[in-house]
């Protein structure tokens, strides 16, 4: 298994029509978001305008979770409200508008793949990981993976790749606060 530890100053930042976006992870690494030559992309964005239009991404699905604040997304006739830590899923090909300002967390993945995004909380401290995964730290924490301990600061992340056997992840903090976001895409 390969584990890469990323810190906030290693991420790629850019702007979009509604605010700023930070690319946290792109797979494959030689892929290109602008050219749409990637399998999946993990990012965090600020929605700074009260009303904004999302970038069209035909051929991709999207999972979006507000980290701070809430947002109302409209895709055609369907409208959903997402509050902090709620996950919404939608087709990247659908024209999507948002109402509300927030900081969000995103997984964009090819329609031929399966994507998953969920919170990791300390009171459920042991987790079994069987596939390549990404962990994004939203509050300082310590994570034990097999025999190695990683001390993560806010906005740090770990990419776990080349997983060939079941791996145990233990969140060492014992409070009930949300510490990590778990993402996988296969």
Task: Describe the 3D structure.
This protein starts with a strand and ends with a strand. The chain has strands spanning 2-6, 12-16, 19-27, 40-47, 51-53, 60-69, 71-75, 78-82, 88-91, 96-99, 102-110, 115-121, 126-129, 133-137, 141-145, 148-152, 157-161, 167-171, 178-185. The model has no long low-confidence stretch (mean pLDDT 92). With 186 residues, the chain is mainly beta. Strand 2 (12-16) and strand 3 form a beta hairpin. The protein folds into 2 domains: 9-110, Jelly Rolls; 115-185, Sandwich (Jelly Rolls), CATH 2.60.120.10.
Short description:
This is HutD-family protein. The protein has no helices and 19 strands.
What attributes does this structure have?
186 residues; mainly beta; Jelly Rolls; 2 domains; RmlC-like_jellyroll
